[in-house]
Design brief:
Blueprint lengths: L1 E4 L14 H14 L4 E4 L6 E4 L8 H13 L10 H9 L4 E3 L7 E2 L5 E12 L4 H10 L3 E8 L2 E9 H4 L2 H8 L5 E10 L13 E4 L3 E2 L2 H7 L3 E3 L6 E2 L4 E5 L5 E3 L29 H7 L4 E5 L4 E5 L4 H15 L1
Parallel strand pairs: 10-15
Antiparallel strand pairs: 1-3, 1-4, 2-3, 4-16, 5-6, 6-8, 6-9, 7-8, 10-14, 11-13, 12-14, 16-17
Helix pairs in contact: 3-8
Length: 325
């Protein structure tokens, strides 16, 4: 993942440590004691690449095996850092912009890039096993073993590490915390990146800057699930919700109700809002699309587009589509 200074319209309003130099110095101190991450220079001098083991949270014996693979074979399992480091920095007063995680590929002697696969073991109740199989099949997982262990079912899959991003949060939420998920590095193999495009959800993106209103959110929530509530600051390009359909949709969460001295049907309509879905740092990291970045401050976590301007973003997407055709 790439860490850099916060460059959103709301930068500098909640944190005290804002510059790229402060962020780099703090990360350099972190690697002195934290052997699970590595720093690499980025193409942009204002940013720095952080390489880590991702969502792998395993026991000490398996950690030793992971480190042996990483340092003796020059292999890194996943280029994605967990929310622990990010949470630590934001509580210290840092404001940052964080790019989506990417998987570290290995180029073989034949010049073909291969990505890591994981052996994933899921223990779940028999009535929920279909949900797990469907979820991992969508993530291009291959079922290796299926057996009953007491009153639970054990499923063993081989899944690309790219497909495992966000799976744990998704399946734990879907099974109400009853599923147990464990994974370990398996091997490297070729991966078709386009197979994972359908995993990403469409977003509701703000096209105005200001404070959200209940009147506007009541209409916007019909299009999907909201991430913000009433009277929260928003800006153009900020993701305010998840679209119910594929693709992004530009919305105006700041629209105010027009006032007049003429009474009309529905003028006194009650504003009824669904509670917003609040995402943690770890959830957002695995939820981001490639054209989005995460804005982290001591008080807020905001998901936004790389290109904030609505017109500029539309032109970029149009050019991207035409180049594919």
């Amino acid at each position: 993942m790439t860490f850099g200074p916060n460059n959103s319209p709301l930068s500098g309003k909640e944190g005290t440590k804002l510059t790229s130099t402060m962020i780099k110095d703090r990360l350099n101190k972190e690697i002195e004691n934290n052997v699970t991450i590595t720093l690499r220079p980025s193409a942009d001098p204002e940013t720095i690449d952080v390489q880590g083991r991702g969502e792998l949270q395993i026991g000490s014996v398996l950690k030793f095996i992971s480190y042996w693979i990483a340092y003796h074979s020059s292999f890194l399992l996943i280029c994605c850092v967990t929310g622990i480091l990010v949470e630590t920095l934001r509580r210290e007063g840092f404001e940052m912009t964080i790019c989506p995680p990417t998987v570290l590929a290995v180029e073989g002697e034949d010049g073909v890039k291969r990505e890591p696969y994981e052996e994933v073991t899921v223990d779940v109740s028999p009535e929920l096993q279909g949900m797990v199989i469907d979820a991992l099949s969508d993530r291009k997982g291959n079922l290796l073993e299926f057996r009953d262990i007491g009153n639970r079912t054990r499923l063993i899959f081989q899944v690309p590490s790219r497909g495992m991003m966000g799976f744990r949060h998704e399946i734990i939420s879907a099974t109400r915390g009853s599923a147990t998920v464990n994974s370990i590095f398996s091997h490297y193999d070729k991966v078709n990146i386009s197979d994972f495009a359908s995993l990403k959800k469409g977003k509701l993106v703000s096209m105005e800057q200001g404070e959200s209103t209940g009147y506007a959110l009541m209409m916007v929530q019909e299009r999907g699930q909201m991430f913000i509530g009433v009277n929260e600051p928003v800006y153009e390009g900020m993701v305010v919700g998840e679209h119910a359909k594929s693709g992004d949709l530009d919305v105006n969460p700041c629209r105010a109700k027009k006032l007049s001295n003429v009474r009309s049907t529905g003028a006194e309509e009650k504003v009824s809002l669904t509670p917003p879905r609040r995402l943690s740092v770890e959830e957002v990291i695995s939820y981001m699309n490639s054209d989005e970045v995460l804005e982290v401050t001591p008080k807020s976590i905001r998901l936004r587009k790389r290109l904030l301007d609505t017109g500029e973003r539309a032109r970029f997407n149009k050019g991207k589509t035409s180049s594919r055709t």
